[in-house]
Design brief:
328 residues, alpha/beta, seven-stranded parallel beta sheet, three-stranded mixed beta sheet, 16% strand, globular
């Protein structure tokens, strides 16, 4: 089966491509001219140089493909030019779907994010039916992914065969950027976590997440979305697990929300605007932390056979990979 994958040079996409290759799929991967190709080394695939905003390139790339995995996304919590993020995440998704429709692709699996879910202040796990709207999306990343997901769901409910996946917070090896979550691990390894905020995430093994993508190709229902989650953990619990894995101390001081918000404002102004760098803490990230991003994956378990395990081994793999590759 000829399969086209976007985002294969990234974190989740590289694992999706490897799982597909292991299962015998013939792969065609979209790479940008300036892409770091470390994550696709060793994968037998046809590499197509192009961009999500080049419709002619995408049309050629999907020609003859039976399936498309659109995993690529601009995943940053700080961006100086928000329009660039919307072009990549929203218009790029629209372009992929148009190319797949015109090319007669049998099924598209679109990778969204758990960030588009409707989280509650009390930390009760959200699911695919939790009330949510664009107004509830904090920051340009969430807003752009929410709009892109709406494009994909509309296509899936209007005749195309499109399945939407909502991974939670993947952890593991090959997080080359690293992602905002990977930075938590790197900062911990560098002892840059003197304190923590009262928030929570759902962590999932990136390998299991990739296998969930393949399961969605085979079993998912068009026009539906599926949360691929693992364990609901507070940030303190995550840091404690990292401490147990590494032997490094876990922070004991909890920072009040108001203090964290003030620090985010200062870091964003000084680092982001004055020194033109990327802030470690942003206002949007602090605002997101007010709600624990806990979820239920019952729908994926029921319909996709999703059976995620504990994430301790994935955290250990991430630690070892970051250390081996000189991040810490």
């Amino acid at each position: 089966m000829l399969t086209f994958v976007t985002g294969a040079t990234g974190f989740v996409g590289s694992h999706v491509a490897r799982i597909l290759a292991e299962q015998g799929a013939q792969l065609r991967l979209l790479v940008r001219p300036a892409s770091d190709l470390r994550n696709v080394q060793g994968i037998t695939a046809d590499l197509v140089q192009g961009d999500l905003r080049d419709s002619a390139c995408l049309q050629r790339a999907v020609s003859g493909c039976e399936a498309v995995f659109h995993v690529a996304a601009d995943y940053r919590l700080w961006v100086r030019d928000p329009a660039q993020m919307y072009r990549s995440n929203v218009e790029g998704t629209r372009a992929i779907l148009d190319a797949a429709r015109n090319g007669g692709v049998r099924r598209v699996v679109y990778t969204s994010t758990v960030a588009t879910m409707g989280f509650m202040q009390n930390g009760h796990p959200a699911n695919e039916n939790s009330p949510v709207s664009l107004a509830g999306m904090i920051g340009h990343y969430k807003q752009s992914k929410f709009l892109a997901e709406e494009v994909a769901l509309h296509a899936g409910r209007s005749g195309m065969d499109v399945v939407v996946l909502n991974p939670t917070t993947p952890v593991g090896e090959r997080d080359i950027k690293p992602t905002p979550t990977g930075r938590i691990i790197v900062d911990f390894l560098k002892r840059r976590f003197p304190a923590y905020v009262d928030t929570g995430l759902n962590l999932v093994d990136v390998l299991e997440c990739a296998r969930g993508h393949v399961a969605a190709l085979e079993k998912g229902r068009s026009g539906e979305r599926y949360i691929l989650g693992g364990e609901n953990l507070t940030l303190k619990q995550i840091l404690d697990r990292l401490a147990a894995i590494t032997g490094l101390p876990s922070p004991r001081t909890r920072v009040p929300y108001a203090v964290a918000l003030a620090a985010g404002v200062i870091d964003q102004v000084v680092t982001g605007h004055i020194f033109r760098g990327e802030p470690r803490a942003t206002v949007d990230a602090v605002r997101m932390s007010r709600k624990k991003m806990f979820v239920s994956s019952e729908k994926a378990e029921r319909e996709l056979g999703w059976q995620p395990g504990l994430v301790t081994d994935a955290l250990r793999s991430a630690v070892e990979w970051f250390r081996t590759n000189g991040y810490a």
